[in-house]
From TrEMBL:
Keywords for this protein: Coiled coil
Protein name per UniProt: Magnesium chelatase
Segments forming domain ChlI/MoxR AAA lid: 250-316
Species: Segetibacter aerophilus
Segments passing through the bilayer: none
Top-level taxon of the source organism: Bacteria
Xref: InterPro entries: ATPase_AAA-3, CbbQ/NirQ/NorQ/GpvN, ChlI/MoxR_AAA_lid, P-loop_NTPase
Domain ATPase AAA-3 stretches: 48-184
């Protein structure tokens, strides 16, 4: 009983700290609470997030603010944060690292690349060639990097925030389906509303100062603890069935060429649980299902045309929400 009480106190404190983390990030990133919650959902689900939008909407600043808000092992400057600017001439070794000759030891040693970090910002990922994009696959899926016959494990907390320009832009390479599937969530970061933008213009110096002196409100150990707790969040059997039904309906829908996989369904469940934690709960609600379905599934589906993209998944989701509303889950 004492152990359970202790654990309960830990969970309560950690849930409070998540809200502090959201508020801390909002001192720099204004008017983006929903996007912040999605980013933290991907983090607590042990996944990665893809943000699509035009340059200048705050995606890079968002990644830096998150990294600086979490204290690392040294408690100086936050967790280990690296930024990679993806360009057409980038090579896989620029990400992974390479072997260099040590004149003292008279042997080749492996010099680790920027992928060996806690929070990675992969900026404009779709400007690099598919060969470079694929270099991210192993580390995102398995938290490890293989060089020759040696496998190097990544940090326990390894989180990728990737940004991409809209695919209609010149000089971009559409991400392959296998790469997109590694991202638990994809969001459109978007512009802020007019009132918030005016506030930013009037206080941009203060916001920049906030980024320089951001508070560290959550430790890396607490993030790892919350990742484990996310797996224990209660989810009603009928909501699990709803996830199954949605996944299956994406495969049956005539307007969807490629439906969601079983792995997508598992990812869906993980994100539902993590989203509940981000919102201060240890149980999943039907409202959670409605809010995160597009962010988790839309980028995994291939639609017949643009009209189908706009309505197909929404119709599938509405059908399940109607079914759940009749059950009146408690």
């Amino acid at each position: 009983m004492e152990q359970m009480t202790e654990q309960g106190i830990q969970i309560d404190e950690a849930l409070e700290n998540i809200q502090k983390l959201v508020e801390n990030i909002e001192t720099v990133i204004r008017g983006k609470r929903t996007q912040i919650q999605f980013i933290l959902t991907a983090l607590l689900a042990k996944g990665h997030i893809l943000m699509e939008d035009n340059p200048g909407t705050g995606k890079t600043v968002m990644a830096k603010t998150l990294a600086q808000s979490i204290s690392g092992r040294t408690n100086e400057g936050g967790v280990n944060f690296k930024r990679i600017q993806f360009t057409p001439d980038l090579l896989p070794m620029d990400l992974i690292g390479s072997h260099i000759f040590d004149d003292v030891k008279k042997e080749f040693i492996f010099k680790k690349g920027p992928l060996f970090c806690n929070v990675l910002l992969a900026d404009e990922i779709n400007r690099a060639s598919p060969k470079v994009q694929s270099a991210l696959l192993e580390c995102m899926a398995e938290h490890q990097i293989t060089m020759g016959e040696t496998t190097y494990p990544l940090e326990k907390m390894f989180f990728t925030i990737a940004t991409q320009n809209p695919v209609e832009m010149e000089g971009t390479y559409p991400l392959p389906a296998a790469q997109l599937d590694r991202f638990f969530i994809k969001i459109i970061f978007g512009y802020v509303d007019e009132e918030t933008e005016l506030e930013i213009y009037n206080n941009y110096l203060g916001i920049a100062n906030n980024l320089e002196h951001i508070h560290q409100v959550l430790s890396m150990e607490e993030i790892l603890f919350l990742q484990d707790e996310a797996e224990r969040v209660f989810i009603h059997e009928e909501i699990v069935k709803a996830v199954r039904n949605i996944i299956w309906d994406t495969r049956r829908n005539s307007d969807i060429v490629l439906g969601a996989s079983t792995r997508s369904g598992i990812t869906f469940l993980k994100c539902l649980k993590a989203f509940a934690l981000v919102n201060g709960r240890t149980f999943v609600t039907e409202d959670d299902l409605q809010k995160i379905t597009p962010a988790v599934l839309d980028h995994r589906l291939i639609y017949r045309n643009k009209d189908a993209k706009a309505k197909s998944l929404a119709a599938i989701l509405n059908k399940e929400m109607d079914r759940l509303s009749k059950l009146k889950l408690s």
